[in-house]
TrEMBL record:
Keywords: Membrane, Transmembrane, Transmembrane helix
TM annotation in the entry: 12-36, 146-167, 188-212, 339-360
Entries under Pfam families matching the protein: PepSY, PepSY_TM
Originating species: Pigmentiphaga kullae
Superkingdom of source: Bacteria
Residue span, PepSY domain: 60-119
Record's protein name: Putative iron-regulated membrane protein
InterPro entries tied to this protein: PepSY, PepSY-ass_TM
Length: 378
């Protein structure tokens, strides 16, 4: 590689790293507890658990579940209802002032066996909420997500440029060699290079999936515009289906499951909400295999008749989004994968911190020299 090319790659690595380092450090620090969000929730007592019952297989009607939840907040409308993939004994019902997307929501956990309220978990406060908001959008909404997406792009550029530079800068060293007899800065440089190449694939995967996740809102809006608008052509001009005119939700759910056998319910979006239409209850069903459990099949059920009107396949970009979300937090392989993700996260924090340290140390001699020169001139 020519000297000019090396300088170009070095310039790219230097400035892409410097611009994104502080934000990447923030994302790594906030992402660490998020890897163990379930475990931390159990320790803090914020996880909702179903009590033991003799007749554990009993289930009340979904209509009853929603009736109980709505009675708790009658001035609100139900946006979503969902079940945890690990425990189908609990329904989580989300209620908001209007069907439109909002951060003003209340959650009610209802026992699927008895129809009794178990808890009213608050997902919009506490330590884990702060960590999540800082990690997702810096408390700045869509603008914050897109900004972090751009920082993720710079991280990918820094990783690629760092990989290109690794060979030429370490060709006289054994792989992983730390020159302990040299200065402190040289030792940190060797450690930075070693951990950087060790975490290369992981950092690229997590950085790439994180960048994809920041586009989620835009992807969903495009899907609604591109596909849902075509499916809703027969309903053109009709107003939002009133709650009083809607058919049984239990019957609608049974129709949705019959249309997609071999799946389980992930969540339900009600008429007028972000993931549905003004005229449908949209059931998002997931597979039962490790990979397909993260992929969703939407089933649109007419809110008035409880008849399935469409089962569109998600486009490739939403499939990529659904796969990237659990991969980003290491949700595919249980606790062992979470531990691996955490160790690689810590190693990346060291890479980012050492890179910032090396840049600051490199600037110190030049700054000191300029000050001495200014003193002599004076």
């Amino acid at each position: 590689m020519s000297t000019r090319s090396l300088k170009t790659w070095a310039w790219l690595h230097k400035w892409s790293s410097l611009v994104c380092t502080v934000f990447m450090l923030l994302l790594c620090l906030t992402g660490l507890p998020l890897i163990f969000h379930h475990e931390i929730g159990h320790l803090l007592g914020t996880e909702v658990e179903a009590p033991a019952m003799q007749n554990d297989g009993a289930r009340v009607s979904l209509d009853r579940v929603l009736e109980v939840a709505h009675a708790r907040y009658p001035e609100r409308v139900i946006q979503f209802a969902s079940q945890d993939e690990d425990d189908e004994r609990i329904w989580f019902v989300t209620l908001t002032p209007t069907p439109a997307p909002t951060d003003d929501f209340r959650s009610v956990a209802v026992d699927a066996r008895t129809g009794e309220i178990l808890a009213e978990p608050r997902f919009d406060e506490g330590f884990m909420y702060v960590m999540l908001k800082l990690h997702v959008d810096l408390f700045a909404g869509l603008a914050g997500k897109l900004f972090l997406g751009f920082m993720g792009l710079l991280l990918l550029i820094a990783i690629i440029s760092g990989t290109v530079l690794y060979g030429p800068f370490t060709k006289k060293l054994d792989f992983g060699e730390i020159r302990r007899h040299r200065t402190k800065r040289v030792k940190w440089l060797d450690l930075h290079n070693l951990l950087g190449i060790v975490t290369l694939v992981w950092a690229f995967v997590v950085g790439g999936t994180g960048m994809i996740n920041t586009w989620a809102d835009l992807m969903i809006k495009y899907w609604q515009y591109d596909q849902l608008s075509t499916l809703l052509a027969p309903y053109q001009g009709q107003p939002l289906t009133p709650a009083a005119e809607r058919a049984s939700l239990q019957r609608s759910m049974e129709a949705a499951k019959a249309a997609a056998p071999g799946t389980r319910l992930s969540f339900i979006a009600f008429p007028g909400t972000a993931f549905s239409s003004p005229h449908h209850n949209t059931f998002f069903l997931a597979g039962n295999e490790p990979l397909t459990s993260k992929l969703l099949q939407p089933v649109l059920v007419d809110a008035k008749t409880a008849e399935v009107t469409a089962t569109p396949r998600l486009p490739w970009y939403l499939t990529a989004l659904l796969v990237s979300q659990p991969l980003h937090f290491g949700d595919y392989g249980g606790l062992p994968m979470q531990i691996i993700w955490a160790l690689l996260d810590i190693a990346t924090i060291i890479v980012l911190g050492s890179g910032l340290y090396l840049w600051l140390r490199k600037r110190q001699p030049a700054t000191t020299a300029r000050r001495k020169q200014a003193t002599v001139s004076a």
